[in-house]
Write a structure and sequence with these properties.
Elements (H helix, E strand, L loop, with lengths): L2 E7 L5 E7 L3 H10 L3 E7 L18 H16 L4 H11 L4 H14 L4 H6 L7 H13 L2 H58 L5 H15 L2 H17 L3 H13 L3 H22 L4 H11 L3 H15 L4 H5 L7 H13 L2 H57 L1
Antiparallel strand pairs: 1-2, 1-3
Helix pairs in contact: 2-3, 2-7, 3-4, 6-7, 7-8, 7-11, 7-16, 8-16, 10-11, 11-12, 11-16, 12-13, 15-16
């Protein structure tokens, strides 16, 4: 008899996992429901999903495409269209790609009697745990359409933030590549042709010219050294980042960076507050919501502290009281959480805090980029100016000797 590994929600909303024996996946689901569990993911041991690297072969779906699907599904559900028909309609509208292939499999599971949340949970490469948990909570609370609408809004807002960051970084990255290309061209093509004039003159060269000539000779004769270091450093970095202690040190270092560290902290706080508030407003129990939020927040420093918050909240401590113990969470967030707990609208206060930190992040990003653009132009002009100066100084000295 096949063995299935499962992840499910108990009657109290907590997450449980284990294994169960059944003749088929459908019977395994029925057994779990008979035990009072809401299946979230059921996978046969030794199946495709159980093989290492199976999920890595799937391409991720862009957030805007996922948001559009979610909004369409919310509209169809709100119109009282049966879920199987709604999913079939969405499959027909979707272009051929990873999302459409995933939706076809989801529709097949729904046809077999699976709930939407369980059908989505079997596609973890596309539908994350936070997405599935909110759908499961919406199904349990009878407000699936409203939950899907909130989820679509959140995905669209997150995509706007990502697009804003990408657009802001495009110009600086382009300037760095252009500047580096110009300097390499000058040092490897232009400078060697001019150097022969100085070497034939046998005149004493300025220090800046000597340094420039040595750098040019190094890049010409030993270009493979920096190239090899760059190529080798990429897999070494990826291997090092598999260690939790090194990732924790990296994340801590990122938070300590001047300017960028504060901006990163605001972005993390915005994501933490909005995801937690969204999960709570969708009916997800606070312990499960904190667990999911801890996974969504990729920074290991925040994640490690949130584990302690979960333990304290499980023991009866308030969320605001737990967050107050760490300097990672500023007074504004703690205060809004405290007000929300006292007034009974914690989720609303968390969403407001998330919006406030997102706006602060956007403002700081705009200011930083407006400052970086002229600084990069000046840096590029300064580097080219040094090269020009190193070339012109010996020429001036040769003219003096001729006179």
């Amino acid at each position: 008899m096949p063995t299935f590994r499962y992840k499910a929600y108990s009657a109290t909303g907590s997450s449980v996992s284990g294994s169960i024996e059944a003749d088929s996946e459908r019977l395994a689901v029925q057994q779990l429901k008979g035990k009072g569990l809401l299946p979230r993911e059921v996978t046969e041991t030794g199946g495709i999903a159980d093989k290492p690297g199976a999920l890595s072969l799937r391409r991720a779906v862009p957030a805007d495409q996922l948001a559009l699907f979610t909004r369409r599904l919310a509209t169809l559900v709100a119109s009282s269209i049966p879920l199987f028909e709604a999913m079939g309609s969405l499959c027909e509208q979707e272009e051929n790609g990873p999302l459409r292939q995933s939706l076809v499999r989801v529709k097949e599971r729904i046809a077999e009697g699976a709930a939407l949340s369980r059908a989505l949970a079997a596609e973890p490469a596309i539908f994350g745990e936070s997405y599935v948990s909110m759908v499961a909570a919406g199904e349990a609370g009878g407000a699936l359409d409203a939950v899907l609408e909130r989820l679509a809004d959140f995905l669209e807002e997150q995509e706007q933030v990502r697009s804003k960051v990408t657009s802001a970084l495009a110009y600086p990255i382009l300037m760095v590549f252009v500047g580096s290309g110009v300097m390499l061209f000058l040092l490897t093509v232009v400078i060697p042709r001019i150097v022969t004039i100085f070497e034939d003159s046998k005149a004493a060269l300025p220090l800046i010219t000597i340094i420039l000539i040595k750098v040019s000779h190094f890049l010409q004769g030993y270009w493979w050294i920096p190239t090899t270091l760059i190529i080798v450093s990429i897999p070494l970095y990826r291997k090092a980042m598999k260690r939790d202690d090194l990732r924790l040190k990296r994340d801590d270092l990122l938070l300590r960076l001047p300017l960028a560290g504060e901006m990163l902290q605001r972005l993390i706080l915005s994501r933490f507050a909005r995801v937690l508030g969204l999960l709570l407003s969708s009916g997800v129990p606070i312990m499960k919501a904190l667990e999911i939020t801890g996974e969504v927040v990729v920074n290991r420093v925040f994640r490690s502290f949130l584990r302690g918050v979960m333990e304290e909240v499980a023991q009866g401590e308030s969320l605001s009281g737990s967050l107050k113990k760490s300097p990672l969470f500023p007074p504004l967030l703690v205060h809004l959480a405290s007000v929300g707990e006292k007034s009974g609208n914690l989720e609303e206060m968390l969403v407001k805090a998330g919006i406030a930190y997102e706006r602060e992040f956007s403002t700081r990003l705009t200011r930083l980029m407006s400052l970086m653009e002229p600084l990069l132009v000046l840096a590029m002009g300064f580097a080219v100016g040094i090269v020009v100066l190193a070339v012109l100084l010996p020429i001036f000295e040769l003219n003096q000797l001729i006179k």
